[in-house]
Task: inverse folding
């Protein structure tokens, strides 16, 4: 499978990969399913070496708490028992949503393109965080002039659009990155995320529906009805997670899934962001259990469905700061936590090296 040029589909993309030697390229949705069935695992020898090293470091065993598990997990994926994070990448994918016609957001859809301009000019929150933590940041606007279809009436994306968005995400990952943050921007996309969560995990539509950018109580009731309508309209595919992503998601959510899958094949660990990012990622896990083993939850957002989604995925968030911004901001804030975990694990002296008596 060789890559196709997507420049004609996403003319604003400036960071497409151009190499022909990328492993596991895909052309069809069957190829995507095959890539999901053939996932690399962490290296067991490296995991064992990292664990042995951790037990030898100048600290009481377990004293660095979760940092120790993060370091071992990261080393296992990188195949290096003394790995460090030196090349993090933040990618923001943007898409527009037909479902905004139903009045489900506090902001108008033109804000998506305006915020893309803001990301490109360096003025958004995530720009500051990426710069602060030494991350490369890329922005991919996905066909903003063609919003997805209103998912209460039709599949959000046809198969070609879905595949193109998955590919955009796949192609956006820098093979030289050693940690990935996938962020998004899309007015209306908390409604898409709620619809996906409701489809994957059931319950009442209202359980998964929150105020997003800040809609009022009347808007929230409309939004819950829209989420329920989405499940009714697509009742025939709710047990097919990739179809759930296509029919209820959006281009930026599909791109996030494509990027997370690519990162897995490159053995690049991923920090998940908020509710939208998690809903997109959850479609991979629902299709293939274990597909998110290379992912860690950067934070739990204030959107009420997020804490429920992370519990379903058995992922404990690193941060809980009441954020609900998206654009990768919560995950970007977790970059220095992962960097700190690896700095300790890979830089500390052992008891023997430091001449410290063990317990
Ligand atoms: O990441 C989150 O959990 C999150 C929660 C609420 C809102 N957002 C952001 O707000 C936008 C979607 O909100 P809305 O109300 O238009 O659906 C979108 O650009 C997201 O990045 C993000
Ligand atoms: C201004 C604004 C910035 C955002 N960043 C991510 N989602 C957003 C939504 C709005 C409305």
Result:
């Amino acid at each position: 499978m060789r890559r196709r040029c997507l420049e004609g589909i996403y003319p604003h993309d400036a960071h497409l990969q151009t190499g022909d030697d990328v492993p596991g390229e895909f052309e069809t949705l069957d190829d995507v399913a095959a890539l999901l069935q053939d996932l690399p695992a962490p290296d067991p020898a490296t995991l064992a070496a990292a664990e042995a090293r951790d037990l030898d470091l100048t600290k009481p065993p377990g004293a660095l708490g979760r940092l120790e598990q993060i370091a071992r997990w990261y080393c296992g994926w990188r195949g290096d028992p003394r790995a460090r994070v030196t090349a993090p990448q933040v990618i923001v994918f943007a898409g527009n949503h037909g479902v905004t016609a139903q009045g489900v957001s506090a902001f108008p859809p033109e804000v998506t393109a305006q915020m893309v301009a803001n990301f490109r000019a360096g003025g958004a929150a995530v720009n500051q965080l990426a710069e602060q933590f030494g991350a490369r940041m890329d922005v991919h606007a996905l066909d903003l002039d063609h919003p997805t279809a209103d998912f209460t009436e039709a599949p959000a994306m046809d198969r070609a659009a879905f595949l193109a968005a998955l590919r955009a995400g796949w192609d956006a990952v820098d093979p030289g990155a050693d940690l990935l943050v996938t962020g998004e921007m899309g007015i209306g996309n908390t409604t898409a995320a709620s619809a996906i969560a409701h489809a994957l995990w059931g319950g009442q539509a209202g359980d998964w529906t929150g105020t997003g950018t800040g809609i009022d109580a009347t808007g929230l009731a409309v939004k819950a009805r829209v989420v329920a309508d989405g499940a009714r309209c697509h009742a025939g595919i709710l047990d097919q997670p990739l179809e759930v992503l296509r029919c209820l998601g959006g281009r930026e959510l599909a791109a996030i899934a494509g990027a997370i899958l690519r990162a897995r094949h490159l053995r690049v660990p991923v920090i998940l962001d908020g509710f939208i990012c998690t809903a997109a990622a959850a479609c991979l896990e629902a299709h293939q259990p274990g597909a998110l083993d290379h992912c860690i939850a950067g934070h739990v957002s204030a959107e009420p469905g997020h804490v429920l989604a992370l519990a379903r995925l058995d992922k404990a968030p690193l941060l809980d700061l009441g954020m609900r911004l998206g654009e990768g901001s919560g995950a970007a804030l977790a970059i220095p936590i992962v960097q700190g975990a690896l700095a300790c694990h890979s830089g500390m002296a052992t008891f023997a090296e430091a001449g410290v008596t063990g317990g």
Summary: Residues 109 and 187 are 5 Å apart (CA to CA). The longest helix spans residues 329-347. The two ends are 55 Å apart (CA to CA).
